[in-house]
Specification:
The complex is a heterodimer. Chain A contains four helices and no strands. Chain B folds into two domains: 152 residues, Aspartate Aminotransferase, domain 1 (Alpha-Beta Complex); 236 residues, Type I PLP-dependent aspartate aminotransferase-like (Major domain) (Aspartate Aminotransferase, domain 2, 3-Layer(aba) Sandwich), CATH 3.40.640. Chain B has 15 helices and 15 strands. In chain B, helix 4 runs parallel beside helix 11. Chain B is globular. The relative contact order of chain B is 0.16. Classes of the chains: A mainly alpha, B alpha/beta. The interface between A and B is medium-sized, with 17 and 15 residues. Bound molecules: pyridoxal-5'-phosphate (PLP). The site of pyridoxal-5'-phosphate has 14 residues of chain B, from helix 5.
């Protein structure tokens, strides 16, 4: 994994703080809906937070493909690369 | 594993809710007596959750027009307009709606849901971007699922947040369509449409306003929020429904965009479903006429909205931010909301129980919708019942205890 991707993962994890209630250790392999107990609305709201944090537009249809924190980080990296 | 196994969790939460009392998803009226009263379990019940804003469902002139069309043209069109042809009434209603809104074009759909689904998903092509409010109605979310383009959400009723998101997309060559609602159906809050219109002008986006709950309710002549705040020229598309103020069923979109009519052969939820039956078209035409001829209905509605909103607020309930025909009371928990709803129903008051995920900010709501046809006495009865149940359930302080403490 690249240094940049690691950084994105760290940022995502720190941003998740206020959203996640269950005390779990979050890693790249953490499944966002299953392990963190976020419903689809919570995921969409969290995506808005990330859009602002990374100053990037993350279209909803890209979220449909995302399962883990790692997927999410790669999606953001990809979208940033295109900007 | 059966194909329905994925709904196990949904079934459990549904059953938990139904176990508290009546099942709010399968209330069955024995009869409807008027726009504001029905029979439920053998009891006369005040209807305070019907979206029947102008109370036109039993208007004699609407009923007469509907019966006439039923007798003369039969029960249904039995097909879609592109395959089976339109009846005169479909065109008449489109002409009347275009005239009412002062626009060139109108398309009538079989429901308001389909109007949103069809118009939004067809306008936003694969290279375009759909930008929706985070608290949008399900029909807008479903349109978003159906569109081939990208979908971006912005924070509810936040023009700065919309601006920020559109600015991020400024290098994207596609067209952007921003979708907002006149009055939001859960809390009754209006969109800051003047500010949204300004963002739209600055960013060159297109603007669609869903006036489902504001048609016949807001604006000098009842055209909705865009008229109320004077930004109709900035609104490219208005979507609305016949199922609320017009007391029937059906939906529409009006626009001044040249070539709008091409959508008639591009928009699948318009093309591949049967058109509205002649009787429904006839009552809708007449209801629109009544709405235009009798602004007093809107004034009465407005007075009733204030009466209920202020009555509940003054009791100490947590209500929405504005006095509109949708008056929602937020309760601390889902269970309390379900119990409260059941108690009101037992006492002869019907309204809507709205629970997450259908509600903003995961609120548990008792949602009322006021009608011009409610008498002030009916509104006062509703307020009294709210007070009584609120004290019984400890949502409101017991007045005896409050007095003792003073
Ligand atoms: C905001 C909004 N848009 C669209 C609709 C759909 O309208 P209809 O019930 O006529 O299909 C509704 C109501 O159901 C609504 O609340």
């Amino acid at each position: 994994m690249t240094a940049e991707l690691d950084e994105i993962v760290d940022e995502i994890i720190s941003a998740l703080g206020p959203t996640v209630q269950t005390p779990v250790t979050i890693t790249t392999d953490t499944n966002i809906t299953r392990d963190l107990g976020l419903d689809s609305l919570a995921v969409m709201d969290f995506v808005m937070v990330l859009e602002d944090k990374f100053d990037v537009s993350i279209p909803l249809e890209r979220i449909a493909e995302v399962e883990t924190i790692g997927d999410l980080a790669r999606t953001i990296q990809d979208l940033r690369g295109r900007a | 594993m059966t194909i329905l196994a994925k709904f196990t969790q949904l079934r459990e939460s549904y059953q938990k809710m139904a176990a508290i009392g009546r099942d709010p998803f399968s209330v069955r009226f024995d009869g409807i007596l008027s726009p504001t009263e029905g029979m439920l379990n053998g009891r006369r019940t005040i209807l305070l959750g019907t979206n029947n804003y102008l109370g036109l469902t039993f208007d004699q002139s609407c009923i007469d027009k509907g019966v006439e069309a039923l007798v003369e043209q039969g029960t249904g069109t039995t097909g879609s307009r592109i395959a089976n042809g339109s009846y005169g009434g479909h065109g008449d209603l489109e002409r009347d709606l275009a005239d009412f809104y002062g626009r060139q074009h109108c398309m009538v759909f079989t429901t308001g849901y389909q109007a949103n689904l069809g118009i939004i998903s067809t306008l936003v092509g694969k290279d375009d971007i759909l930008v929706i409010d985070g608290d949008s109605h399900a029909s807008i979310y479903d349109a978003a699922k159906m569109t081939a383009g990208q979908v971006v959400r912005f924070r509810h009723n936040d023009p700065d947040d919309l601006y920020k998101r559109l600015r991020r997309l400024s290098d994207h060559p596609g067209n952007k369509l921003v979708v907002v609602e006149g009055i939001y159906s859960m809390l009754g809050d209006t969109a800051p449409l003047r500010e949204f219109a300004q963002v739209k002008r600055e960013t060159g986006a297109f603007l669609l306003v869903d006036e489902a709950h504001s048609m016949g309710v807001l604006g000098q002549t009842g055209r909705g929020l865009a008229q109320e705040v004077g930004v109709e020229a900035d609104v490219d598309f208005i979507v609305g429904t016949f199922s609320k103020s017009l007391g029937a069923v059906g939906g529409f979109c009006v626009s001044d965009l040249p070539d709008f009519d091409i959508l008639r052969v591009a928009c699948r939820p318009y093309m591949f479903t049967a058109s509205l039956p002649p009787s429904v078209i006839a009552t809708s035409i007449q209801a629109l006429k009544r709405m235009r001829e009798e602004p007093g209905l809107r004034l009465r509605l407005n007075a009733n909205s204030h009466r209920l909103y202020e009555g509940l607020r003054n009791l100490g309930f947590q209500v929405g931010p504005e006095a509109n025909p949708i008056v929602a009371v937020a309760l601390p928990t889902k269970e309390l909301a379900i119990t409260f709803w059941n108690a009101l129903l037992e006492a002869g008051l019907y309204l809507n129980l709205a629970l997450p995920p259908a509600t903003p900010n995961s609120l548990a709501l008792l949602r009322s919708s006021v009608s011009a046809a409610h008498t002030p006495q009916q509104i006062d009865t509703a307020i009294q019942l709210f007070a009584q149940v609120g004290r019984e359930l400890g949502v409101l302080p017991d007045p005896a205890i409050v007095q003792a403490a003073e």
